[in-house]
Amino acid sequence: MLDRNSFMETLRAVAEVCRTSTDPLAKEEILKYFDGMELSEEQVEMIYQYLQLPPEVQTGEPVPEEEEEEQASAISEDEEEENVYFQMYLDDLNAIEEMSEDEMQQAYQKLLTGDSSVIGTICESWLPGIAELAIPYAAQGANLEDVIQEGNMGLLIKLSELVGAGDVPGVDAILEGAVTAAMIAYTEENLEEKVANMVVKEQEKKND
């Protein structure tokens, strides 16, 4: 039986190779990493499509027509609930008084000189921007609330690293990079998890 943890580790390793390779890997090269896992043609195709398609393209498991309608209904309900949550979240953010550009730069300067007391204020002012940045990643199938939370955590970690860092140019860009990196990492992990579940499920069906 396919070992899920081993498969996940291999999938992540191959995904990293594909991301860092200057030339696209051939299908045969990719399959070498999965030698000994006894994958079916359908499973191999899932893996290949996942590794070759851009992140915004979702892989999916073919389902019978009657199940497809049920899944579509469930997805629609989930999306509606998520949209309600997001609107409520945005309404809450409207009550937050954002700092002006000058006030933000002053807060950054205090942070860089070692004043960690401004972290909370900076985080609060960044909340609307993080919510906006999360939308494209949530559209890839990840839970919007989780993506926002990951972005908030990425911001907090980077701000903590910048305390007392001295003269650091482009703090806004650095923080946005930390936020998006955290969101990307979560989204990729979420997609990997889905692909792994599909492949393992197919393997279980094959062994039944």
Name the descriptors:
single chain; 208 residues; mainly alpha; 2 domains; 8 helices; elongated
Summarize the structure.
By secondary structure, the chain is mainly α. It has eight helices and no strands.
Give the SSE map:
Blueprint: H1 4-20, H2 27-32, H3 41-52, H4 65-93, H5 101-112, H6 119-138, H7 144-162, H8 171-207
Helix pairs in contact: 1-8, 3-8, 5-6, 6-7, 6-8, 7-8
Describe the structure.
This protein has 208 residues and is mostly helical. The protein has 2 domains: 4-61 and 191-207; 80-187, no CATH class. It has 8 helices and no strands. Helix 3 (41-52) packs antiparallel against helix 8, helix 5 (101-112) packs across helix 6 and helix 7 (144-162) crosses helix 8. The chain is elongated, with a radius of gyration of 21 Å. Mean pLDDT is 77; it is low at 54-64 and 70-75.
Low-pLDDT segments: 54-64, 70-75
Biggest β-sheet, characterized? none
Q: Averaging pLDDT over every residue, what do you get?
A: 77
Q: Indicate how many domains the architecture comprises.
A: 2
Write the element-wise H/E pattern from the N-terminal end onward. Answer: HHHHHHHH
Percentage of β-strand residues? under 5%
Spatial separation of the terminal alpha carbons: 11 Å
What's the helical proportion of residues?
A: over 70%
Specify the structural class.
Answer: mainly alpha
